[in-house]
Every structure is written in C-alpha cells, then in structure tokens.
Write a structure and sequence with these properties.
Radius of gyration of chain A: 19 Å
Helix content of chain A: 25-40%
Domain FAD-binding PCMH-type (chain A): 2-179
Number of helices of chain A: 13
Distance between the termini of chain A: 59 Å
Shape of chain A: globular
Organism (chain A): Actinoplanes aureus
Pfam families (chain A): CO_deh_flav_C, FAD_binding_5
Protein name (chain A): Xanthine dehydrogenase family protein subunit M
Number of domains of chain A: 3
Strand order of the largest sheet of chain A: 4-5-10-6-7
Largest sheet of chain B: 7 strands, mixed
Number of domains of chain B: 3
Strand content of chain B: 25-35%
Largest interface: A-B, 28 and 32 residues
Order of helices and strands of chain A: EHEHEHEEHHHHHHEEHEEEEEEEHHH
Number of strands of chain A: 14
CATH topology of the largest domain in chain A: Uridine Diphospho-n-acetylenolpyruvylglucosamine Reductase, domain 3
Shape of chain B: globular
CATH class of the largest domain in chain B: Alpha Beta
CATH class of the largest domain in chain A: Alpha Beta
Strand content of chain A: 15-25%
Oligomer: heterodimer
GO molecular function (chain A): FAD binding; oxidoreductase activity
CATH architecture of the largest domain in chain B: 2-Layer Sandwich
Bound molecules: flavin-adenine dinucleotide
CATH architecture of the largest domain in chain A: 2-Layer Sandwich
CATH superfamily of the largest domain in chain B: Aldehyde oxidase/xanthine dehydrogenase, molybdopterin binding domain
Number of strands of chain B: 34
Distance between the termini of chain B: 45 Å
C-alpha cells in the first residue's frame, strides 16, 4: 500500500464555501474531485498538500450536461461515466463518447470528473484534447465573481492552469455553431486504459454546399499541453472535404506538434500518429457530418 | 501412448462435478478466496504489532557518505531506525543469495541499484513509519553506474562489486554447454546458416500481492514466527537458520494465502530479514508490506538475456545444429534462483523439440547497477528464454528457406520412438509425441485456411500474421544427484493421515500461490484411495505442520510433490490392504482394489471400504501381527528425472498498417502435460500463462534510463495486459504420460508463459513480412512495430 503524507480533509458544502476555504488556506490546499489524478500523485508523494477540500458533495450543483440550441454547458463535477452515457451530448458532439470509451477504465470513469481532467492539465489528458477540439471555454469562479477563458488561456503549461488560488472551475461551455457538424476522436494506447501515446480529436462544420465552414483539430500527448492547430482550420475552411485535404491536415499536424521520445514511443512515431490520427478523425468527423446531412434531407 | 483431444469453448459447463479422483471440479480454495475470506500476510494482525518501512536508494550507484537518523528517531510513533552500520555490528549486513553470492541486507558502503535498501524504520503505524523515512538524511556521493550490459566488461567500466575480495571487474560467470567443436564442424558443412540477435528484455513478475512479512520473535522462548509471502517456506526456514544463526527448530515460517508468486516470492528479500531484526530489536511483532513501486523496482526480475542465435540446416530444411552466445544481465547481486550446478537454469534445452546433430551455448553473466534477481516469472529456470530463442530462430530459418514454419517444424521433430531422447546438451527428454500435438493445433486453427486468408489480405495491403511456437519444457526439479539449492536437495516430503472416519489430511511441502494445490492434491489422493476430494484436507505453507521440501516454482509441484502424494497414498493403501485381508480373512493376494474398497477376488459381494478399514485401523480388536495402529504414511520423493511437457501454440494477429497497433485475434494452445488431474485447473493455468505471454510480447519491460533510474516503477509505466488485450483462448490437449512419474503427470504451470511469447512475436514478424522484416524484439509496442515496418527495428536495450 502506497501511503500519502499527512493532510487535513474537509468536505465542501457549496461552491462558495469551497472558495472560502481555498481563500483562507491558500496554496497549501487543494480541491479533490474524482481524486484519480490527485490521489495517485499524493500516494507516490509526488505531491503533498496540507489540506484537501473534497468537492464531491457538490456534484448536485456542478454535475450536469445542458444541451441548448447554441451551446452545451457541462458542470465541472460531471463524471466521465455521465459524459459517456449522455445521449444528448453524443448527438451534438459524438467526440465525447468516442473519447470516453478509451479513457481509463470503468472504475476511474465512475469517479473522475471533467473539471479534474482539465485542471490536472496533463498533456495526455483526453478530455482536454476534446475541449480544445470543440473550442470550449472554461468558467472560473472566485470570491470576486466569474471569468470565462478559452482553452488556450486555460492551460498555462503542463500541469498548470489559469485557475488561481481561491478559484474553482465550475463549468465548460461549448458553442454549437450553425451548419451540420461532426466530430470524432481516436487514440493509440499501448494497452486499454493506458494514457495516450497520441490521440487526436477533430470537429468539422459543413455549409449548405457541403464545404467546410470550419474545422478544428486537437491533439494530446504531443506537446506541453493539448494542442489545437489553427493552421489546420485555416487551410480547411471553404474547401470541399476529400482525402487530399485530410492528408494536408495530417501533414500540418505532424509538423506543428512537439512530441518527445519516452517509453510510450519515439518522437518520430508520435509525429506519424499525429498525422495518421488527424486524417482518421477528420475523415470520421466529415462522415458523421454528412450522415447528419443525409438524415436531414 | 498419446491420446488426442480438442477442447471446445464449452469449458465451463462441466466444471462442477465431484469426481473421486481426476476430472473437472471447482477449486476447493475458491469459496474462501472469492468471498474475501482468504488470509494473506497483510491480513495478519498481532497484538502490539508495529510497522516497518524501508528507505531505498534514489541512485543506481553511489557511495554512502553519512546517514543521519536523529530526526527520524524523534518522529512520532517511531520505535527504531536501523541502518547498515547497526546490522554490521550484528554481523547481519550481508546475506547469501540463492546463487552463492552475497547481497546487502542494508547497504553499508555503497548502493548498487536504484531502490536498494538503505535503512528501515519501525513505528506504531504504517503512516508514521513511512513519514519518518522522509526525515532520514543520507549523504551520497554519486558514482558512474553500469547500465548498458554490453559495456559491463569494458576495462574502464565502474566496478560494482568492490565488496568482493579481489574482484576487479563486473564478471559473474561464464558457462558453456554442448560441444563447441562438433557444432562448428556441422556449421561449416551446412548449406544454410541463419543468424539473428535476439533480446529477451527484463520483465517483472508483478504478482497482485506484493511481498511482505510479519515477524514475531519471542525473546523468552527464543522462538521466531514469520508469516511471509514465500513460495518455499521450508527452504526459507533453513536459510534463516543459517543466516541469522537461529536454531532451525525455533523458527516457524508460515506462508498463508499467497496472492500470486510467479517466481517473485522465491528469493529471501532484505525486507523479510528487516522485519525479523525489527522484531528482535523492539520485542514486538513487526509487519513489513512493500508497496507496488518497491515491488517493481527492487524484487526479482526475470529474463534480461541478449542472445546471438545461429541455426544451421540443409537446403531441404533439415535442421542440423544450433549455437548461441548469451550475455546475461544479473543485476547488482547474483540472486538467481536455480539449482546450484545450473547457473543459467535449464537454458540448455534451447535445442527445442528438434533432432539435432550438434548444439553449443556459451554464456557470460555480468553485474550491472540494476535490481538483482534473474530467475522469476513463470520461467521454469530460464526455459522461457531458451524456448524463445529456438522458436524465433527456427522461424528465421523458415523465412530464409521460404518454407512454411509449420512444415519446417514437423520435418525436424524428435520422433516418438526416439524417447527417452538425449539432447546434444545432455537433457534426457522422458516422453513426447510431437506431431499429433502440432497437427491438432493446426486443425483447430484451420491453418491452411488462415494462410489463404493471409494471402488475400496481403494482396490488399492488410497486415495479418500467423505465428507458431512448439515447445518442450524441462520441469520438476529435481533429482538430488545433480540438483540442489544452496546444498538443499530438491526433494519433497509428503505426509498422509486417514482419520478413523475415513476423512484424510495430507501435508505438503509445496505452497500454492494460486495454482490450486488444495484441489489438485486432494484429487491425487482421491484417485489413489477412493476418498472424495472434499473429504481430504490439504495442509501446506506452515513449516511446523508440514514435511520438508523445496517449494513451488519451476512447475515442480505436480512432478515432485504430486508424485510424493501419489506414492504416500499407495503406502497407505498397501497398509489398508493388509488390514482388509485380516478383516475379510483372505490372503492379501486374493484382494482386488476397486477404487475406494478392497474386494475378494471372484466374490465382489465381500469387500471393505477404505473408510471401514480406516476405522478398523484406529478401532478395537487386534490388527495383523506386528502392525501398529492408525492409517498413515510419510514419504520423501526423489524424482529420477525431470518431466518434459510439450505444446503447440498458434497465434493470429492483425496489425493496423497506419498505427502499427497489434491485435491478437486468435490464440490456439494445445498442451501436453501428460496425465491431466483437473482439466479446469490446467486450463486456468494455461489461460493465465497465455495472458502473461501477451504482456511480455507486446508491452512489458523494465526499462532504465542511462542513470539507472527504473522507468517501470508503477503499473502506469510497467504495463500488464488486461482482458481487453487477449482473445478468447482456444485450448486443446494431447496426453503423453511421463513414464517415470507415478501418475504420468508433467508440470503445466509455466507452459503457456514459456510457449506464448514466441508464438506472438512470430505472428507479428509474419505479418510484417511484406516489409522484409525477419526479426523484431519484444516488447512489440506500436512504436516499435512501426520502427520495424520502416526497416528500423532496434533492440529494446
Ligand atoms: C488508472 C488510470 C488511468 C487513467 N487513464 C486516463 C486516460 O486514458 N485518459 C485521460 O484523459 N485520463 C486518464 N486518467 C485520469 C482520469 O481521467 C482522472 O479522473 C482525471 O484526470 C482527473 O479527474 P478527477 O476528477 O479524478 O480529478 P482529481 O484527481 O480530483 O483532481 C485533479 C486536479 O484537478 C484539481 N481540480 C479538480 N476539480 C477542480 C475544479 N473543479 N476546480 C479547480 N481544480 C480542480 C485538483 O485540485 C487536482 O489538482 C486515468 C486515471 C487513472 C487512475
């Protein structure tokens, strides 16, 4: 049994109370959501905190998936399993279900949360890549009120986010853009439940003519944070989707990422996967968008 | 005689029978284990028990300049802090390994691998002990480590074992087998020679339960009770007696339920000794239970062989000879567990299942700044490496000859009439009939169809591979004339007592870690005596209550203790026959044994059951002249030879050409372990071993960075396979009994671990044939497969 260093523990009863505790205790305190990233680090003594503020009782307040006409709002305490099982979410953004199917295992998915995943800011975190792909924004609340930041602003570096002392991530907002959309996620892992060697998400929006009105690609495990690639969006916009376009996007992805060699694989291989998975997910996303189109016509 | 049978996937339906003897039945131990009623070392709670935590070296190679324990000693709950210096005073700083080397119990002079034990803390609870470790201040002077095994013998390589008198290099041993000259001669005349460098990387057994112990030393009685995670309680007790100077009769080693061993729990680890010292120093029981990272970085690894393999053959595909040169990484201390005369274990069976003209192996073993160990992980004393070597190089030869690998194997098998067969390295294979086993596997696989499907797929650019491995193992160590561990002969005792009501208790020296001994051994007694298995209690794991023997590893339990159990039951039966003859008033020769009863020849109406005989043996009235009461016997079995199970494995894989991910689509395993005692248990052993094989072939490896940091220190980094990586196993069997084993059984515990990695690697390499790949080393992770596809396969170390 791996045992953590001593810490004090308190269960938060509301978001505001949690914020109050965080303000009072400062950087020696940490929120614990699902605990599936934090607790392993504490048991390995890679992280020691004097206080843990458990926000699992806030699931009632922060655990929701609300799909509106122009936006999806997901509470930070929403569990992996809820994201996996939500049909409403899968309908607008099938990428979530794709990703959740390959994140960890049922035990982890029962507890781990969207908020914890984003706040962990691990470069391999799949939900960060999903949110990057979908151009999500993050709602951060402190005692002075709420602020909303983009994913790029949210991830400051590996394991570092824009959430300050005395703040808490409460919600993720994802815009639903006009037109037909499709999204997909693909991951290469050495074994089920392992972190990604590389994973990629893609989302496309098609106009009336079937041209790409917008496209986004997000990659995990190939840089300091999950990486969105604006150059791909720029080169795909206004063009008709086809294999050569996916190839172009794949080439851009490979060139734009910054992987390192480790036990999961060589940098070259990861670059190759960035290419391969970008092509696959774009192809899948376009297929889904076109299927939506067919279904409607 | 070989019988052939195919087991379809209906395996579960008939498991819950109650055979009086051999046959499928659910395991007697499972009710306890599945309901959380098992009692493992960590479940042991004693009044006043303290907890121990070990401070380990962060460096692979460093001089210890100073250790300051004062802050730790002052930490809450701490009862003792012990360093190497303390142990030195007691003469306990070093202990012998299983290979006649020595290993530091706590480092005194230097640390020699990352994770080595430097000090330990005993405190009131586990948390306090662990917290106090942070307060021990060790000053190290970091030294250059030896990590690349190929450089260990370079003249300027740092010297690791300066503790050994006169040692000037990192050499452990040279070992040779076979006839070098004859082999060279055969090679010189051969049409075809194929050569390949083959690496079997370092892997870890990673049992679900980590290692640990609870020591309870009674200073008044001078008695030590030690609960520990050991596969060999008797051998351990003797070694503790020798190491600690405690009288052997005052040491009781108890191995309670063990959560998996795979060889990991054969050695004596410093932690066990720490708990003993901790208990002596504090006068209280002391528990040590290592955590997962400690288990992965410091306990017995397996493999770590770099092998150059060469095979010689005629153009027509007759294999003539095999020779190999091996560089073996033994880590910082030679902790290999193998019979003393076999420093490379049973690697000598690298000649495989083939009738050769010559063979030769030369091996050099070296020290490196890595954890010690060597033989562990279901390897049958290095047979895993040997089988991998021969089955890989035979496939390379098939590739060179453009021959089908199944056909090449069939052409070269040792023939049934050649048994007992003496190999060119001196091993006497007891029995075997290889072709039916191979044919059955091919039939089950639909081999011809698979090859056709592969051709179609290849034409479309899809990557499908079919891999074959055929293995012969040597298990059941062993005959005492040439096998011992630290001077202890590898024989097993067994005691059987039939109670007055005909229930029985059998006491074994071996110890299950999941193999199902409580069922298998009850079935062996049942088969011999006709007493139902549920009426037979199997006692094992406690040295005070069981006879001496060397323990469970190397698939030796059934070959050695299983024979002992059958023979002790026959001894009891012989006595029962004498009593029956008196009861029935006929001569002994006039009795027939029909399972469970003696019958008068020609008069089946007159008979006595074993239960009636048991009561008579304990009951009133005279027994035959000169006979003592009771119905019991004991034995110590010395096998005359090892047993040689064999098997044919076929694996089908698909590889994603874009991502290089390998998917094991099918796996057909036909095992021949001689007489089958409980087929369900055998299948369970095979399923587990095959899963192990998928792990080693595709993902497992204990890697190090150049500073000697272990890169596999958690199960996030050291991957073991899950149910999602394995297909539905397709198992079949043939039965070729062992001629010298009383019931004809051969070991099977490790067969699948031995046989599956080459089948999987052969399948992957076969799939990659369109890229001109002839060999790629394990672990075949997507990244490494992708390298191979681009002609850039590299060894993993
Ligand atoms: C075996 C295993 C396998 C895994 N595999 C994968 C995988 O394949 N892919 C993947 O993406 N992830 C994987 N994970 C991680 C898993 O998804 C975690 O659940 C997730 O990363 C963190 O979510 P959590 O709720 O458990 O966060 P916690 O561990 O509770 O917290 C993580 C960090 O976020 C902070 N935090 C949490 N919530 C908030 C909030 N609302 N506001 C501010 N800060 C907050 C915490 O203080 C902490 O610093 C795996 C984990 C395990 C144990």
């Amino acid at each position: 049994m791996q045992v953590p260093a001593p810490f004090e523990y308190e269960r938060a009863t509301s978001v505001d109370q949690a914020i109050g505790l965080l303000e009072r205790l400062g950087s020696s305190a940490r929120l614990v959501a699902g605990g599936h990233s934090l607790l392993p680090m504490m048991k390995l003594r890679l992280a020691n905190f004097e206080y843990l503020i458990d926000i699992n009782d806030l699931h009632g307040e922060l655990g929701y998936i609300r799909v509106a006409a122009d936006e999806v709002r997901i509470g930070a305490m929403t569990r992996h399993r809820e994201l996996l099982e939500s049909d409403a979410l899968a309908q607008v953004f099938p990428i979530f279900r794709d990703a959740e199917r390959v994140i960890a295992d049922p035990v982890v998915r029962n507890r781990g949360t969207l908020g914890g995943s984003l706040c962990q800011a691990d470069p391999s975190e799949d939900l960060s890549a999903v949110c990057t792909t979908l151009d999500a924004s993050c709602v951060i609340r402190g005692s002075r009120g709420e602020r909303v930041v983009t994913m790029e602003e949210f991830h400051v570096g590996p394991y570092e986010t824009a959430v300050g002392d005395g703040e808490i991530l409460t919600e993720i907002r994802i815009p639903i853009k006009p037109g037909k959309s499709g999204s997909a996620y693909a991951k290469v892992e050495r074994r089920a439940g392992d972190w990604a060697v590389v994973s990629a998400g893609a989302a496309v929006w098609l106009d009336e003519q079937g041209q790409i009105s917008d496209a986004r690609v997000g990659l995990a495990a190939v840089g300091p944070n999950t990486t969105g690639i604006p150059e791909i969006s720029a080169s795909l916009r206004g063009r008709a989707p086809d294999e050569s376009l996916y190839e172009l996007a794949g080439a851009i992805a490979a060139r734009s990422c910054d992987p390192v060699t480790d036990t999961r694989g060589s940098a070259d291989y990861k670059r190759h996967l960035a290419d391969e998975l970008t092509r696959r997910t774009l192809r899948g996303a376009v297929e889904r968008a076109s299927a939506v189109e067919r279904a409607r016509s | 005689m070989t019988t052939v049978s195919e087991k379809k996937l209906t395996e579960f339906e008939d498991n819950d029978q109650k055979p009086v003897g051999f046959g499928r039945m659910l395991r007697k131990e499972d009710a306890r284990l599945l309901r959380g009623r098992g009692r493992f070392v960590d479940d042991v709670q004693l009044p006043g028990m303290l907890h121990l935590a070990i401070l380990r070296s962060p460096f692979a190679h460093a001089k210890i300049v100073s250790i300051d324990t004062s802050a730790a000693e002052a930490s809450p709950g701490v009862k003792a802090v012990v360093t190497g210096e303390t142990l030195k005073g007691l003469g306990l700083a070093w202990m012998p390994t299983l290979s006649n080397d020595v290993q530091a119990v706590l480092a005194t002079d230097k640390v020699r691998f990352q994770g080595q034990e430097v000090a330990f803390v005993v405190a009131e609870d586990r948390y306090q002990a662990r917290d106090a470790l942070e307060l021990i201040d060790v000053e190290y002077e970091v030294l250059d480590p030896v990590i690349d095994v190929r450089k260990a013998l370079e003249p300027d390589a740092p010297l690791i074992r300066d503790d050994l008198d006169g040692k000037t290099n990192n050499h452990v041993f040279d070992w040779e087998t076979g006839d070098a000259e004859e082999t060279d001669r055969v090679f010189a005349e051969a049409d075809v020679i194929v050569k390949e460098d083959i690496v079997y990387p370092r892997v870890h057994p990673a049992p679900m339960e980590t290692c640990g112990s609870v020591a309870d030393f009674d200073p008044v009685e001078g008695r030590l009770r030690l609960w520990s995670t050991t596969q060999a309680p008797h051998a351990h007790r003797t070694l503790y007696a020798i190491v600690a100077g405690l009288p052997e009769h005052k040491i009781q080693v108890i191995a309670p339920d063990i959560g998996g061993g795979f060889g990991n729990k054969v050695p004596i680890y410093p932690g066990y000794v720490h708990s003993i010292v901790g208990s002596i120093v504090t006068g209280k029981p002391v528990k040590w239970m290592e955590d997962r990272s400690e288990n992965l970085i410091s306990t017995g690894f397996a493999r770590d062989y770099i092998m150059r393999a060469e095979i010689a053959a005629t153009r027509e595909g007759k294999i003539l000879a095999i020779r190999t040169n091996v560089l073996a990484d033994h880590g910082a201390f030679n902790g290999t567990a193998a019979p003393v005369k076999y420093p490379a274990g049973f690697f000598g069976v690298f000649t495989g299942s083939y009738d050769l003209m010559a063979a030769h192996c030369k091996m050099t073993a070296v020290y490196t700044n890595k954890a010690p160990g060597g033989v562990a992980y279901a390897c049958s004393f290095r047979i895993t490496e040997a089988v991998y070597l021969v089955e890989r190089i035979v496939d390379c030869l098939a590739d060179e000859l453009e021959m089908d690998p199944a056909e090449l194997r069939l052409k070269n098998f040792i023939q049934p009439d050649q048994f007992p067969y003496t190999t060119k390295t001196g091993w006497v294979y007891d029995s075997g009939n290889y072709e039916p086993t191979m044919r059955l596997a091919m039939d089950m696989a639909g081999y011809e169809e698979l090859r056709k499907e592969q051709a179609l797929k290849r034409a479309k650019g899809e990557l499908m591979g079919i891999g074959i491995a055929f293995f012969t193992e040597a298990v059941g160590a062993g005959p005492r004339k040439n096998m011992d561990i630290l001077g202890l002969g590898m024989n097993d005792g067994c005691e059987l007592r039939v109670h007055p009501t005909g229930k029985a208790v059998v006491r074994l020296s071996v110890k299950t870690q999941g193999q199902g001994h409580e069922t298998t051994f009850a079935q062996i007694i049942a088969e011999e005596l006709g007493i139902p298995p549920d009426d037979i209690d199997v006692i094992h794991g406690d040295t005070d209550n069981t006879p001496f023997g060397l323990g469970t590893y190397g698939s030796r339990s059934t070959p050695v203790s299983g024979a002992a159990a059958a023979l002790v039951a026959r001894k009891v039966r012989d006595k029962a026959q004498l009593i029956a003859s008196a009861m029935l008033e006929v001569s002994v020769a006039d009795l027939d044994w029909v399972k469970g009863a003696f019958q008068v020849k020609g008069d089946p109406g007159r008979s006595v059951t074993i239960q009636e005989i048991a009561f008579k043996a304990h009951g009133a009235g005279d027994l035959p002249e000169g006979m003592e009461g009771a119905l019991e016997a004991q034995i110590c079995y010395n096998p005359s030879n090892l047993t040689y199970p064999h098997g044919a494995y076929i694996c089908v894989v698909d590889i994603d050409p874009g991502t290089a991910e390998v998917k094991v689509r099918r796996f057909i395993a036909v095992d021949d372990c001689g007489t089958r005692i409980n087929p369900m248990i055998i299948e369970g052993q095979v399923h587990g071993g095959l899963t192990d094989g998928v792990g080693m072939a595709l993902m497992e490896m204990i890697a190090f960075d150049e500073d000697g940091n272990c890169l596999g220190a958690s199960l996030m980094d050291y991957l073991i396979p899950t149910s999602l990586e394995v297909p539905d196993w397709e198992t079949g069997f043939t039965v070729t009994p062992s001629p010298h084993h009383p019931i004809g059984a051969k070991g099977v515990g490790e067969s699948a671990t031995v046989g599956s990695p080459p089948a999987i690697v052969n399948a992957v390499v076969d799939a990659l044939k369109p890229f001109g790949v002839r060999h790629a080393d394990m672990p075949l992770t997507p990244s490494r497969v992708w390298d191979a596809m681009r002609g850039q396969a590299t060894p993993p170390i």
